[in-house]
């Protein structure tokens, strides 16, 4: 039976760690919800929304049996921040490490929770997660170094929220008329998927807050009246404690901090959360009032007034997360074997559609998921040509990679790497320009994260060890920019991926969807170096996660990709667009161009 059943069970892998297998059965379904008073269909789990929190402990194995009960869309889940050691096929991105899960089908995810921390999960199927399919994933640490410093913990999620569904939002965005590359602008901000949240605090107690930013677009600021934050973790890295007064979390980032309800506390304290619309962050006073803000409350005394002001914040000076020190004091990895430099700019494709380019090219989905290509083209899998235009970067197992991102646009972008946590050697100030092309004095004890915000017209320098064979995406975590192509693919340890086997249920979903599982990006198993049939221009008709049966889908985008769609694909897109009310005002606000 598919019920929300969480069986903490079985198997002691080792008597010391007492690791468990945590099994969860999920049916992904449409649900009607009105988190801010505006009703709309959202994507939930087991007919409920908000989606459930997953909680387990480090060393556990998590099994999620996922059934797609959506009827009209495909799906797939990414476990954000989880390393997926030896299980790259469980990482989730559809079309890259697995095939989309068709409606009526199931897929099993099974992987080790190798590190403690605050994580989250979200759909990684086209632009689907802003429709609601995301939630917290907490991995508890029996050996938490801060154990004893807090009494209880709470989760605070922040998210931007849209009244329209993702598919029409992206269709509007991916139009030649969108000459300013504007993403959809959110209608509101949600805290714990609600409005008007109150957290009951007991005087004398200290709380661990796990802040998760589940935004599709906007970064959030956080400030709590009269209560400084003792930082203990960013993403899944324990920090040396440091006091912060304001935080800035970009999409996908997490912060853990302690706040104490000290004895002098009486009354109620506002916690202000505001979406950041100051696009380049160069000048904190450029956007003094943040129209999408929400006041949550730390409630000590329900009968006391809820009146303390929050609009006295006119300058946001959040703590600089790249200056936080990791608790383990790990030094900067001293040298690197492989330099990867990615220049990000918006760009237009041959059809005049707005895209986001890395080194001049947007990521374009291919016919065969890249991990399947890596497994099936033999020794040719070290040749980037076989993967098609997914911005492939081949990295040898064991190499130290220095990854430089030059942001050549006028807004900050949060970049996320799957399968790793990287050291942030440098994150230059806004308008610092490109990386100078040589190493400078870097932070000797850099913070480690899986997502870093790179400021406008500036750069960041990251280092990591490639010891996790797989295909790992590196992308901007603004979901709308992913749909524009702002993604590169690390093909890590290709030698180790040759001949890799895939679970039968994963392969079955490929069969149902008509997705080839062998050969190069175009499915050529005879000559992997023959690029015929690879997709080189994104289709002009965007159908997102809309389910299109394989018969209706063929022939798909062939050759150079300009035969953008079959009649069935066009029909499906038209129907999807028509069903959902379009927001004509979408690009109305000229101040908010990112
Ligand atoms: C999933 O939920 C849908 C919608 O409620 C229902 O029709 C379907 O039978 C469920 N499937 C399973 C396998 O539980
Ligand atoms: C969440 O991330 C978005 C996108 O980067 C950012 O604009 C917003 O400020 C973040 N929210 C919080 C509370 O940090
Ligand atoms: C920041 O913007 C404000 C408002 O436009 C302006 O008055 C101020 O001079 C700017 N500061 C800097 C350092 O550019
Ligand atoms: C919060 O939003 C309101 C309404 O848009 C605005 O008047 C106020 O200035 C905002 N507060 C902050 C601190 O940005
Ligand atoms: C790549 O594949 C071609 C065609 O099968 C083959 O002739 C060639 O030897 C392969 N190259 C490598 C480096 O394995
Ligand atoms: C794509 O191919 C078609 C037909 O083969 C051709 O007419 C068209 O000019 C090509 N477009 C581009 C941008 O290469
Ligand atoms: C799928 O079904 C949902 C719920 O009925 C609906 O809102 C949506 O427009 C449908 N179409 C697509 C393409 O999602
Ligand atoms: Cu971006």
In summary, what is this structure?
The protein has helices at 166-173, 370-376, 479-484, 494-497, 504-513, 550-553, 567-579; strands at 6-9, 21-33, 40-45, 54-57, 61-68, 77-80, 106-112, 117-123, 134-140, 152-161, 188-191, 198-200, 206-213, 219-224, 229-234, 237-244, 246-249, 254-260, 268-276, 293-299, 338-348, 354-358, 392-395, 400-407, 413-417, 422-427, 448-449, 451-454, 458-465, 470-476, 487-492.
Bound molecules: 2-acetamido-2-deoxy-beta-D-glucopyranose, copper (II) ion
So how many helices? 7
The CATH topology of the largest domain turns out to be Immunoglobulin-like
Indicate the proportion of strand residues: 25-35%
- The count of β-strands is 31
Largest sheet: 6 strands, mixed
Radius of gyration, in angstroms, nearest whole number:
23 Å
Low-confidence stretches: 1-16, 555-564, 579-594
Question: Which CATH class of the largest domain applies here?
Answer: Mainly Beta
Q: In the CATH classification, which architecture of the largest domain applies?
A: Sandwich
For CATH, the homologous superfamily of the largest domain is named as Cupredoxins -  blue copper proteins
Instruction: Please estimate the helix content.
Output: under 10%
C-alpha geometry: globular
Distance between the termini: 46 Å
Number of domains: 3
Q: Could you tell me the mean pLDDT?
A: 86
Structural class: mainly beta
Order of adjacent strands in the largest pleated sheet = 11-10-13-18-15-16
């Amino acid at each position: 039976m598919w019920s929300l059943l969480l069986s903490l069970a079985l198997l002691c892998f080792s008597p010391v760690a007492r690791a468990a297998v945590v099994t969860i059965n999920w049916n992904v379904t449409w649900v009607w919800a009105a988190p801010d008073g505006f009703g709309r269909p959202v994507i939930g789990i087991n007919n409920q929304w908000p989606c459930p929190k997953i909680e387990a402990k480090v060393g556990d194995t998590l099994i999620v049996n996922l059934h797609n009960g959506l009827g009209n869309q495909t799906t797939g889940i990414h476990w954000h921040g989880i390393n997926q050691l030896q299980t790259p096929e469980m990482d989730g991105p559809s079309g890259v490490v697995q095939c989309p899960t068709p409606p009526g089908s199931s897929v099993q995810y099974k992987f080790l929770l190798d590190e403690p921390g605050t994580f989250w999960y979200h759909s990684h199927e086209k632009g689907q997660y802003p429709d609601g399919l995301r939630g917290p994933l907490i991995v508890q640490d029996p050996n938490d170094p801060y154990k004893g410093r807090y009494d209880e913990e709470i989760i605070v999620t922040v998210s931007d929220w849209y009244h329209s569904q993702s598919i029409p939002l992206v269709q509007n965005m991916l139009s030649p008329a969108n000459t300013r590359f504007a993403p959809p602008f959110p209608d509101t901000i949600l805290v714990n998927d609600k409005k008007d949240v109150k957290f009951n605090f007991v005087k004398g107690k200290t709380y661990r807050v796990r802040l998760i930013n589940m935004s599709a677009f906007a970064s959030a600021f956080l400030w709590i009246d009269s209560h400084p934050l003792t930082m203990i973790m960013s993403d899944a890295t324990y920090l040396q404690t440091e006091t912060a007064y304001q935080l800035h979390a970009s999409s996908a980032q997490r912060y853990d901090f302690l706040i104490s309800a000290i004895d002098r506390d009486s009354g109620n304290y506002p916690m202000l959360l505001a979406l950041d619309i100051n696009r380049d962050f160069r000048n904190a006073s450029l956007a003094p009032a943040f129209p999408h803000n929400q006041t949550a409350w730390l409630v000590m005394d329900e009968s006391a007034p809820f009146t303390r002001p929050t609009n006295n914040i006119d300058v946001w000076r959040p703590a600089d997360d790249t200056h936080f020190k990791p608790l383990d004091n790990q030094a900067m990895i001293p040298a690197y074997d492989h330099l990867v430099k990615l220049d990000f700019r918006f760009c237009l494709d041959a059809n005049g559609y707005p895209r986001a380019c890395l080194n001049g090219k947007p990521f374009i989905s291919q016919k065969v998921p890249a991990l399947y290509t890596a497994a099936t083209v033999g020794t040719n899998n070290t040749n980037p040509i076989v993967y098609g235009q997914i911005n492939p970067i081949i990295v040898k197992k064991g190499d130290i990679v220095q990854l430089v991102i030059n942001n050549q646009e006028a807004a900050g972008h949060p970049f996320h790497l799957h399968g790793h946590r990287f050291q942030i050697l440098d994150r230059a100030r806004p308008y610092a320009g490109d990386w100078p092309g040589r190493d400078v004095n870097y932070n000797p004890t850099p913070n480690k994260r899986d997502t870093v915000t790179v400021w406008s017209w500036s750069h960041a320098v990251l280092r990591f060890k490639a010891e996790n064979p797989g295909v790992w995406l590196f992308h901007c975590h603004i979901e709308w920019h992913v749909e524009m192509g702002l993604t590169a693919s690390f093909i890590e340890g290709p030698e180790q991926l040759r001949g890799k086997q895939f679970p039968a249920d994963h392969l079955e979903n490929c069969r149902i969807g008509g997705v080839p599982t062998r050969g190069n990006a175009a499915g050529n198993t005879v000559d992997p170096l023959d690029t015929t049939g690879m997709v080189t221009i994104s289709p002009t008709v965007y159908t997102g996660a809309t389910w299109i049966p394989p018969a209706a889908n063929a022939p798909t985008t062939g050759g150079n990709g300009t035969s953008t769609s079959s009649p069935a694909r066009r029909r499906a897109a038209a129907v999807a667009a028509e069903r959902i009310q379009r927001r004509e005002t979408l690009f109305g606000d000229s101040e908010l161009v990112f």
